[in-house]
Amino acid sequence: MLDTTRNLVAQQMRQVWIDAKLCIGDGTINRSDLVVAFGISIQQASHDLTAYRTANPKAVEYDLSAKCYRRTKRGKPAYPQHLRLSVTNAVRALRIFNEMEESV
Q: Where in this chain does the record put each DNA-binding transcriptional repressor CapW winged helix-turn-helix domain (predicted)?
């Protein structure tokens, strides 16, 4: 039961992070972004992106030439800004922590 809850929370965090990634910078994301940020498999990253697209079909489309997902002009954020910022900051903090641990 605890593992199921933990997996659902992790999956939800990745959904919020996908949304945040699409709202900043050039508005693109691909599977490798998720793999690097969360240390998940390519298959899990594909599953997460498919889940995001299913939940937000008008918000994102696949760009064949760039091989990435891109926010559409009519796409609106699926999550509030404070939640996107919180998850993004948590992922950054964990990355910094892990880098520090590796250097010790």
A: 26-79
Q: What one-character-per-residue DSSP string does 10-71 give?
A: HHHHHHHHHHHHHHSTTSEE-HHHHHHHH---HHHHHHHHHHHHHH-TTTEEEETTTTEEEE
Return d(Cα 4, Cα 6) in angstroms, integer: 5
Q: Tell me the per-residue pLDDT of 48-86, one tens digit each, with 9 for 90 and over.
A: 999 999 999 999 999 999 999 999 998 899 999 999 999
The residues spanned by each domain of the chain are: 2-103
State pTM to two decimals: 0.90
DSSP state of 86: H
Per-residue pLDDT of 10-45, as tens digits, reads 999 999 999 999 998 789 999 999 999 999 999 999
